[in-house]
Amino acid sequence: MRHNVWGEGVILMVEGAGDKAEAVVHFGSVGEKRLLLSWAPLEKA
Prior knowledge:
By secondary structure, the chain is mainly β. The chain has one domain (2-43). The protein has no helices and five strands. The protein has strands at residues 2-3, 7-15, 22-27, 31-36, 42-43. A hairpin with a 3-residue loop joins strand 1 (2-3) and strand 2 (7-15).
């Protein structure tokens, strides 16, 4: 997947459902980030 600031990333885990779903994503440039999927600017790479 791709984030507009952190670039290419790999989704490691997804928790929750609906508006509260979160993903842990590893970005090569900044390491792991926990993102709220309903808010994060993610797109398929």
